[in-house]
Specification:
Elements: H1 8-49, H2 60-72, H3 76-83, H4 87-95
Length: 98
């Protein structure tokens, strides 16, 4: 504290004001955070609606190779080592209808 007071009342007042200022700054920061998240979500939705945001394209060559290995009956661990992909990718492709 920059101000040292001898009066107990004044000290309690400064503590209350400091607490109020911190609460107010925290509320402003939270509102700013929520506003930025909302605006970002709106921008992403607009970009998707306009076709500017399509996501990463599927690696069809790799996925076809994984499906072929699954049909041959190779184990998942063999497929993982051969294609250097994740286990969830193999699981997703194994669930695809033929």
């Amino acid at each position: 504290m920059m101000l040292k007071t001898e009066d107990a009342f004044t000290g309690r007042m400064f503590d209350a004001i400091n607490g109020m200022l911190l609460d107010m700054l925290a509320a402003i920061a939270r509102k700013d955070y929520d506003d930025r998240r909302r605006r970002q979500a709106q921008g992403i939705a607009t970009a998707k609606a306009e076709g500017r945001m399509r996501g990463r394209p599927e690696d069809t060559e790799r996925n076809d190779a994984i499906i072929a290995m699954l049909r041959k009956g190779q184990s998942w661990n063999t497929i993982l080592r051969a294609t250097n992909c994740s286990r969830s990718t193999v699981a997703k492709l194994a669930k695809r209808p033929e």
